[in-house]
Structures are given as structure tokens and as C-alpha cells.
Amino acid sequence: MFRQPWGSHHVVESTDTFWDLHTGTNYSEGIKFLTNTYNSFCDEVAAVVTGAVKPWTKDISYHLKIVWDDNSVDFYRNDTLIASNLIQNPMELRYLYVGRDRTVSGEYNTQFQKNQYITMSDADGPIYSNLEVNELVPSADATEPAITLKGDIDGNGVYNQEKYSEEFANAARVFWNTNEANVVCHVKYGTASGSLNFSTPVLETPSNSTGEFSALLENLAANTRYYFRVFGRDASANVDSSIEGTFTTLEHGTRYLFTPVADAFVENDNTVTGYSHLYAPQRSTANMGWMNLMSAYGRNAYMEFNVSGVSGTIMRASLRLHGRQGGSGGGDVKKMALQSGITTWENNVTWGNRGTYINATDPVTLGSINSVTAGQWHAINATSVVTESDTNYVFALIGRSTDTNVIAFDSRESTNYKPELILETEPFTLVDLGGAITAVKNGASAWGDYDADGDLDLLHTGELANGSPFTKLYKQSSGSFTAVSTSLTDVKNSAAVWGDYDMDNDLDVLLAGMNASGSRVTKIFRNDGSDTFTDISAPLRGIDNGEVAWGNYTNDGYMDLVVSGDSANASNNNVGPFTKVYRGKLVSGQRTWEAVAIGVIPKVRNSSVAWGENNNDGWLDLMVAGDSAGVGKIKIFNNKITTTGSRSFYEVSATGLTQAQTSSCVWRNIDKNGTLDIAYVGAVTANTNAFKRAPAGGYSLVSDDSLKNLKDGALAWGDYDNDGDLDLLLTGDDGSQRHTKLYRYNHFSEQFVFTENYTGVRYSAVAWGDYDNDKDLDFLLSGEGASGPIVELYKNNVSSSNQAPPVPTSLSSSYIYADSGAYFNDFATLTWVKPQDNKRKTPQSALTFNVMVGTQSGAFDLISPMSNSSTGVRLLPTGGNAERNNKFIVRTNNLPEGTYYWQVQTIDNLFAASAFASGTFTIDRPGAPKLLADTEKAAAIPERFALSQNYPNPFNITTRFNLDLPENGRVLATVYDLQGQEVVRLRESEMPPGYHVLDWEGRNAKTKVVSSGVYVLKIVYEKNSGGREEATQRLLLVK
């Protein structure tokens, strides 16, 4: 297609020019070529090429070559000579047209009158829609052009498919680049790999300086995987194609794109412009066979869109026009209508009769265009007038008296840049709760299926309107919520999460906050079934204005904790910032926790904490954010092994991450590059930012200005539209008004796009979950609204057809038991292959994986999945415990030798989970003290009391010894140094008869690592039947 509406100058003497031409849908046989040139006096000379009538087919792309050699012009179609022409003098080509007219059956009389292009008859219509004129042709080469889909990662042929396509429910735009100028391309596509049954016409070269191509693929099916390949021909007729790309259209009820079913440009003949049809106002009389939509004084353009098949309520509409001829000027954009009874109009409308077709009685002015940039999109908000599906909408671009310059936009005949009407539908509907859930602020809400009935229930905490703390468990059944009477402590300024600390695969409760007596508490409640939760009196520091999180950072199967917030000091009850990691362990058969001294982790209040895989090494890392003595901190700590073999943390450099006091900070992988990104909302200052982390380290802003700056709010990630991207729900106060905003993450532009406002709140909590089991994410919102505490539930309107992802494959395992020289390794590594299913929306890089481990097939007594072990259905809407890894490390030093059973499942962005795939691993420790399984312990009773030599000895981190007890008795196990000073008591409790194993990790009673040297282990055994026995062993610790 010509770059300008009147053509372009192309110097082609003594060289070749290549065009690619696509015949239009109105084409009928009969064709001619016309060369329109300058002579030496710059007078235009028209010369008709003889013998040009050939059979041409409509809707077909042809490759044309025009060879100029002094006075001769030869025309080739698909490399076959079809016409020649001799010209008296060598000339510079001014115009070269391919066209048909009313005299085609007789002599080849074009009736061209210089610039007045009115020779096409109305009945015949244009012969083609698109024509590409290459500027200059380089010398011939034999090298094929390189067609590269956008998103080639580091040029290594590995593609990020989210960078080369932008999807809608009914269309998609794909992007690519070429390495040569003047490469002419088209796209073939289809719904099966290798079977590309559809094709675009020949496409224009890029309209911008970047050399980036794009093509719009229309009339696609929703939620469907498509495959495509780009084919290109360079100036020397070399042909190549891209790799096969893929994309999946969006679900119904999301975003739609429509292009015109009709459009036209009309101008006032002579009265205003002084010209007569200079720009071919009627499509049927435009011998150039295509048309731009122009606007200036005395020139109007009209577009008709048929909006159909839209599911849901239209909440936003944008009319986009692509600039072709730039400059100052433009016109008013108005919504109009067709006159009653008019169905066909674009080939008939003129300036004089436009009122016959277009009803301009009650136009709605949508906005104005005052300048146009060629090659760029220009958008007008059409939300106020585009309100219904299955309706035709007519828009007009009306030139104003002040618009003396002519500007132009691409028409519907453009193959690349047709006018677009983009629609978004309302994603959520407010659910009438009827008061079933109590309104709170300063709280926390967590979805979880605590009774394993397949419906997500709600744990809901916070502050009531009268200032009282509140905690309630709501059981849900088919969308109805019923409050359950439990012993859960009422808390405000609270944090609350589900977890399975006792590995029985039901959900226990961890909550923290200020109780009714004004004390800060952190409590764990065991789920005992039948709506009963028991406080286990966990030894945890009480906090409020903070956060708590489960995570097994030691990989030993004992759930660890991080607790952070305002804390009551035990001595004076003063408030102070607090952060502590608690390591889970087993003491006398009971799960408990001990505080771990990790000095690098800051003490913060108004805090956010999260476990996550920051470096993908199989060990959980930690994020801590909050207020440390008035200084905002956002810190990342990677999990590491110490020189003694224990696990600890070190701070990771976070270059580019702006430190701030935050009220909520979340840690997830936004851009699916395998690293965890960060988003936060401010606490003291209204400040909202999202940062993405590069694989090599360092953070950069996702967007500087798209997210509303708020404070005292909350953030939550969730893929509400099931497009594979994590979207963001944001609440808070901007200093004058409360907000709740939904932002959609656009993977193509790598920015958050504002989607919708909901009831504004601060001191708030938001929680995603599919409460109605319709395969999409709903959300619960609570906090302080304009008139006090509120709680609202929003149902997702997306017509989701999400399916559970496929199971992992190729399961394998390895076991290591070896002396590293510094400490003893004792762990199993479980691995699998990540599945790839093109029918699902969550890309492979964003899938998480969930592992369970047991002592028997199908058991989960070592690692709980918090999923239905038979069906795989999740008990809570979170990712898997293996994060995005394809491996899971199990620390096995506390397990006896034997065979163990493990299973793994896949979880997508909507927290839909696959069934489990199964594997086994075996523990074998040659030469080590033997640990007995529980069943062996129960079946075997030692004949006599005995203490084995520890193993390994010498040791660096952990040493182990067997203790044989023939009957019940009280055991005191103490480690002394050589001066007889007590170092630590390993056991002081009643123990049953059997074979027992005790470990010492080289720490004193304050959990500090002791120095190298010789230590003595003394066992005092007092039998219940009477009698006392003792035994000792010398232990050598070497660092």
C-alpha cells in the first residue's frame, strides 16, 4: 500500500523494484498496468503497458517484479513475464498503478487525468486491497531473510511467546522482526501445529522506524490455542519463514477487538477544497483500489463496527485509529448511526448524499483529534456509547473549519492497521451476603477448605466497629456462609493463615494480633475435626500489626514459622519491632518450635513476611518488609548452609529496589522469568510500586505511574482473567480518599493496566479464591470504608473453561549420605519434568508444584500436600510447596532406612491442581547407627539398656547415637565439656521402651554453636520399676 494517499516517488531506473499485491474481495477479471512518469521537463506522461490482461484471482497475493532498463519496462508476476512497455526517454518513475476500468474489454484506455483518479466504474469495484511499494531494491543476493518472532531471549532461538502476541477473546496481534529492509510478509495460522489453514494477505512493511512487523488475526475462537508462522520474501525473491509460534485467545467475558465492517471517506467537491475527487472519495471510483480515512475541512470519514458475541457487561470501549499521514489537524470524533433501513452504504456514500446514509441528527461527540503521528495509534474513549453486544456502531471523523491540513488514518483495507474498537467487560459482580459475614477492619482473611468438603471456607479476623477484636470461622456450602462456633482467639490488628503443621492433611490455624484483654498473642490451633480447633500453646512471641507465615526452610518436614510485628517485651510489656524465625522440631513425639538466632534479619513492625524460592536452589528463602525504628526496609534473604551444616540466611543485594515503609508487600513472579518480583503499598507515605527482578539480579520498576500511590492498604496477586498473567488488587488511602483498584498485567507491554474501581477501603485485607468452584478467582474485601468497617464478596464474571493442568512426568530421585568434610549430608532429591500443555493458560514457567511424602504408598505423614490426596484438589488457594522448581529436597537425617513414597502435582495460576504422579526413594546409610521406623520400634523391645557410640565421630554439625530402653523410664541426656560444665540437655522426659535415636547439632542451651573440642554425653536412666543406670560417650567436634 502506498505510504501517502497520492502515491510515492520511487527511483527505479536501471534496477528492479519488487511489489507484493493482494487482490481484493471485489475483484473481477481484467487488469492493466500504468506507468506515470516525469519527462525531462517534469511534465507527467502516462503510458499504458500493453498485453497486461491476464487471469487474476480475488483474495490472492501475487509477487510482482518491475524491471527498468533504460527505456524498457518489463512486468513479471510470480517471476513470469506478463507485460512489457517501451518509453521514449529514460525517466524517473512517478507513479506505477495496477488497475482496471470500464474499458478493460476494449482498448487499454486508462482515462487517467493527471491526479484525478475517477476512472473506476462503480460496478466493477477495486481489484486489490493492498499494494506494497519497496523504496529501493538492493543488489541481488542469495541469502534468505531472517524472520524473528519478537521475544527471542538473548538471540539464542529460545522464545518467550508472551512477547510476540497480544490476545483478545476473538482476535490476536502477532509481532516479528526481519533482518533485511523491504521484506514482504504474510502470516499463516491455524488451530493445530503444522496445519496452518488460514492466511493473512500480503502485509505492509512497518510504519515505524523500528522495523517491527505486526499483523492482526481476526474472527478467532475464544480460549483456543493457535499456531502461526510468518513467511517473508526479500527484494531478491528469497523466501524464509519464522519458527512456529503459539498463542491462546482469552476467555469470553474479558476483552474483545472488532474492526470495521464498512468505512468510507467523503469530500466536498470544489465548494470547499477546490479539488475534484483529488483523494478518490468513493471506494468504488478509487482506481488505486484502496482508501485512507482522511479528515480536514470539507472531508469526513465514517466507520461501522458490528459488535457481536460479547459475553458480559461492557464496561470500557476504546476506538483506535492508526495514523498514516501525520501533521497538525484532525477533527471531532462522533458516534452517529445509519439511517433507518440502510444496510449497505460504503460504496455509495458521497459528500452530497451522506445524509441519505448517515444519521447525524443526534451525534454524540466523543473527543477530538488535533494532531496525528504517522505510524502510531490514536485512541478515543467510546465507553459512553458502546454499551451492548449484537449492535452496530457508526463513528465519524468530522473535519473542522480550522483543520486546513489533511491528515489520514488507515482504513479497513489495511492488512496491518485497520481501525479497532476494543472492548472490556465488567470482570466482577458484588455478591449479596445478607450480613452472613461480619464487617471488620485491621484484619486478615484466608480461604481454606478446613473440612475437606470441596468448598472454600473462610477464616476472618479483625476489628469490629466498636473497637473489639473478632475472629470467626465461616463454613461455606454452595455459596452460603455459616458462622461456626470455635475456640479461636478473637484478635485485631491481626494476621491469620492456614497450614498443616502436624502432617495429617487437614488445615490448622496460625493467627496473631491483639486479644480482648489488650495482650499480643501468636497462637497455633490444631484442627481436630468436627469444627474443633485446639490451642496447642505454641512457644511463640505475641505480635500485632504484622504478619506470620508457614514455611519449611530446613526441608525436614517440620513446619517452620516467621513471626514479625509489634511485640510485647516479656519484662516491661513495651511495644517494639520484632522479627523471629522459629524452627519446627519433634520433642517427645510432639511438634514444637524453637527461636533461631539469625542476626541479619531486621526487626520490623507494620510488617510483611513471605517464604519463597528466590534462587531456585530447592531451599526456601525469606522476604521481610516493614518499619524499623521509622526507617522503611524491604530485605531479601537467601537460605544457605553454614560451615556446620545448619541452615541460615544471608542478605541479598537488591539493587534498584526502592526501600520504603510499607503496609503490605507481596513477593511473586510477575513476568514469569523464574525470579520473584516485589510489589508494595506504603504505610506513612502514599507510595505504590511494583518491581521485577532480572535473572542475573537487580530490580527495575514495572511501571512508574500506572499504579495508584496509596498507603495503609493491602495487595494481592491473582490471575482473575485466566490469561496467564498475575493481576493486582490494590487497596488503601491516597491522603484524601480510600480506594480499591484492580490492575490487569499486560505481558506484552509489561505494565499494569487499570481495570476497575471497587468500594474504597484502608486498614484492609483482600483474598483471592474460587469460592463458587466455577474455575475462576473471586475475591473477598474487608477494611475501613467511608462510613466504617465493611466486608464484600465479588464474584468473577469471566466465562472460564480452565482445566486442571497435566501431571508432572519422568519422576526420579537420588539419595545422598556422605561426609562433606565439614558436615554430613543426609537428604533425598526428588525431580520431575515440568509438563507443557498448550490448552492451558498458565505458561510452564509460572506453574508451581506440590509434593507429599509418606512412609507408605499414598501417605503424607512426612510432607503434607494440603490437597485431596486422591483427586489432587487443593484445600487452599495457594501455589505448591516446591514453588516453580522441578525438584524438591527432603532432609532425611531424622528418618530410618527404608523405602519412602512421594507424589507430586502441578498447580496453575488459578490454583487448579492436577492429579498426583507417584515415585519412591530409598534411604541406605552404610556404617551408620540404625534408625527404626515407628512400626519396628513398637514391635521390638531391647533386652537391656545401651548407648551406642555416636556417628559420625569426629563430627562437624550433627552427630547421632542410638539409645536402647528395655522399659518405661525417665531419661536425662546431657552434654558436658571436659571441665564438667553442662553445655545442653538433649532430653529430660519420660520415654517409652524401645530403640531411640538422639541427635546433637553442636549447640548449647542458648542454641549458640559451641567451639571445637571433646565433649561428653551422659545418659541417666531411671526405670519406673526401680533402678538407675548410666552411660557415657566421648564426642569430638571438629570445625
List keywords for this structure.
1039 residues, mainly beta, Immunoglobulin-like, Jelly Rolls, Neuraminidase, 5 domains, seven-stranded antiparallel β-sheet, 48% strand, disordered N terminus
> Can you tell me the CATH topology of the largest domain?
Neuraminidase
* Gross CATH architecture of the largest domain: 6 Propeller
What's the overall geometry?
Answer: elongated
Average pLDDT, to the nearest integer?
Answer: 82
- In total, the number of domains comes to 5
Taking all Cα atoms into account, the compactness measure Rg is 37 Å
CATH class call of the largest domain: Mainly Beta
**What is the topology, as strand order, of the major beta sheet?**
29-55-54-53-52-51-50
Please report the number of helical segments.
Answer: 2
Oligomer: single chain
Q: Helix/strand-derived class?
A: mainly beta
Portion in strands: over 45%
Largest sheet: 7 strands, antiparallel
User: What ranges have pLDDT less than 50 throughout 5 or more consecutive residues?
Assistant: 1-15, 24-54, 89-139, 153-157, 272-290
Straight-line distance between termini: 77 Å
Helix content: under 10%
User: Quick one: how many beta strands?
Assistant: 68
Secondary-structure blueprint:
Layout lengths: L15 E8 L8 E7 L5 E5 L12 E9 L2 E6 L2 E7 L5 E8 L28 E6 L13 E3 L15 E3 L4 E7 L5 E7 L7 E2 L12 E6 L7 E9 L5 E3 L3 E4 L6 E4 L3 E6 L24 E4 L3 E9 L6 E12 L1 E12 L15 H4 E15 L4 E5 L9 E8 L8 E4 L9 E6 L2 E4 L9 E8 L8 E7 L5 E9 L2 E5 L7 E8 L8 E7 L5 E8 L5 E3 L7 E9 L8 E9 L6 E13 L2 E7 L8 E8 L8 E8 L2 E11 L5 E5 L10 E7 L8 E6 L5 E6 L5 E3 L13 E4 L8 E7 L4 E9 L4 E19 L8 E8 L2 E9 L12 E11 L4 E10 L14 E7 L32 E5 L6 E10 L9 E7 L10 H6 L6 E2 L11 E7 L3 E9 L4 E10 L2 E7 L12 E11 L4 E10 L2
Antiparallel strand pairs: 1-4, 1-8, 2-3, 2-7, 4-5, 5-6, 9-11, 10-11, 11-14, 12-13, 12-15, 15-16, 15-17, 18-28, 19-21, 20-27, 21-26, 22-25, 22-27, 22-28, 23-24, 23-26, 29-55, 30-31, 31-32, 32-33, 34-35, 35-36, 36-37, 38-39, 39-40, 40-41, 42-43, 43-44, 44-45, 46-47, 47-48, 48-49, 50-51, 51-52, ...
